[in-house]
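User: structure tokens for this one?
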Amino acid sequence: MAGIICLWSGVMEIMNQAGISGALSRAFRPLLRRLMPGASRDPETLEAISANVSANLLGLGNAATPLGIRAARRMARGTEGKASDELCLLVVMNTASIQLIPATIAGVRGACGSVSPFDILPAVWLASVLSVTAGLLAAKLFSRFWRA
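Assistant:
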């Protein structure tokens, strides 16, 4: 597991150096500001969330984990052990993340002898979009009914 995390963290660092992850992060900021207005007040928190969403989008789940933990820690400051609605939304977005390039699954399919390991892309895209939409709607709905 440590080797996989190191590999994908290295891929994420190469993307950072090439400017790919920064461009994706900037593209997601308007949407994230709308979804998480409280977290977007802190530029470092918004950057961590954007980088996390970008890594998940590219199918780099193991590289996204440390970024998500950093974002969650920043969002949890001052909450006295109680998760905010926005922190719950971050967890939902991480759990149901949209993936453009499901690298891990394609790698497993390739290792098992699949002639075309990426032929699953349309199904992955549809399932990803539906799961994120359902998760976001459920999180927003529950946050309205269960106010503490």
